[in-house]
């Protein structure tokens, strides 16, 4: 919880926006994956491949890439925003939920929106915001005081706002929403506060709630009493003790079982399905008071877009006691199925350090990748003294969105190696919006930390190449038809790699942590690559306030 400066909702107009914005129609959203002019949503398209289909900037010329402009916001705090670009206008967000509209060719500011923050805001890992969704002439933003707001894209004026969850109970928003037809979809964070997670749909025109899917079912959260994780390793559960606890104490704890959805769902238009990753159960480390598999925490879940009805789920870690959220945004691509044929698939990268490949129709796990970072002592249970297990509670792959290139058929994942001990402490639900970990995960200071950008062949699960970095990676990846992969590091380096080989082709020192996913677009015949350099709270990387936009000279 933190007192915040945003005392009033204001929109400051800095310069008149030229009359360039065309409505973002459903047709534009559906075809955004092949649109080289715009970048219409945080992860580029409903499939969330983060693949830019233009090739002006490519392997042959990327070494000449230079900043075209630098835009500085008024907030020196972690930046996770994915710049969204519509008809030459860029929309970015900052920590504490400010929004800016800029000229995407020059960085000239048109307007600046400040959200009036409620009295109570709760966030585990920084006052972050990961970007806007756009539809029609509107922008949609989730806020730390758990509101969904709609802005007029041209003026930055507030059109409506609606309460998503109760901030007094730890509900909060960091993710970019997604819009499809007449609905805005958004989940919630709060997995470290004893929330009951959900995805909700709201009417784009009015903000009226349409449906809610709870990630924690009222009955049946105990699942199948699974003894193994997705990779077949023993979870060391005491199933008898858990069953006894459930019989003695009942299942009322579903109300505080966590299961946040804090990254953007993928949308399968062909089957009218939303697919998203569900985070850790609450309390994170103290599992004894929440017997059962804790469905649908640490799962990939598919629901019907019209009704919010459950379709399928796949749980990676039943009864997680390590805070290993499923979180990075799912990517919809065709994958090689069990019989060798290509089928609609969905891939997801976990804090566990694997990329998981699923059948999109059933959720069935087809394969998982080699471990991208060291795994040791899995699944050692947390102890009162603290037990060492790798990966640590940040992963593996954090929220950092992967990219996928259809040319290389590689998925690119930003990984952390951060050894930790896991300590458990009996802690009843503290109520309100108080942090509820049920213990602690602690970095082991004597052990080296580092990062790894890893390219995974989704058809075999094999690692094609990797690039080791000095610091654990958090922020996400962009792939392009120019045969490039872009990724940044907390020490300020923003880099381009050969997508096929992993050879480093270019780097630029941005002056603050590059811990946000880059985006790309084309304006007046010029391709640009935009990325935020504002550091990261969770890993305490150097803060800044810049959006840096690159182009060829
Ligand atoms: O379970 C949750 O609801 C939740 C939410 C968030 C968030 O919204 O930022 C993070 C986490 N968990 C988390 O476990 C975590 O490691 C993390 C890192 C970050 C970040 O922005 O760098 N957010 C979060
Ligand atoms: Ca979490």
Verbal overview:
This protein is mainly β and 553 residues long. Helix content is 3%, strand content 35%. It is built from 2 helices and 37 strands. The chain has a 5-stranded antiparallel sheet with strand order 1-7-6-5-4, with no helix packed on it. Strand 10 and strand 11 form a beta hairpin. The model has no long low-confidence stretch (mean pLDDT 97). The structure holds pyrroloquinoline quinone and calcium ion. The site of pyrroloquinoline quinone (PQQ) has 22 residues, from loops.
| Shape field | globular
By helix and strand content, what is the structural category?
A: mainly beta
Task: Tell me the Rg in angstroms.
Answer: 22 Å
Give the biggest beta sheet: 5 strands, antiparallel
Task: Count the beta strands.
Answer: 37
Give the % helix. under 10%
Strand order of the largest sheet: 1-7-6-5-4
Average of the residue pLDDT scores: 97
Heterogens: pyrroloquinoline quinone, calcium ion
Low-pLDDT stretches are none
Total of helices: 2
What layout of secondary structure does this protein have?
Blueprint: E1 10-13, H1 26-30, E2 51-52, E3 66-72, E4 84-86, E5 89-93, E6 98-103, E7 109-114, E8 133-135, E9 138-142, E10 147-152, E11 158-163, E12 178-180, E13 183-186, E14 198-203, E15 209-214, H2 239-249, E16 266-268, E17 273-278, E18 299-304, E19 310-315, E20 331-336, E21 342-349, E22 355-359, E23 365-368, E24 387-389, E25 403-405, E26 410-417, E27 420-424, E28 439-443, E29 450-457, E30 463-469, E31 477-480, E32 484-488, E33 493-498, E34 504-509, E35 519-523, E36 526-533, E37 546-551
Parallel strand pairs: 2-31
Antiparallel strand pairs: 1-7, 3-37, 4-5, 5-6, 6-7, 8-9, 9-10, 10-11, 12-13, 13-14, 14-15, 16-17, 17-18, 18-19, 20-21, 21-22, 22-23, 24-27, 25-26, 26-29, 27-28, 29-30, 31-32, 32-33, 33-34, 35-36, 36-37
The chain binds pyrroloquinoline quinone (PQQ) and calcium ion (CA).
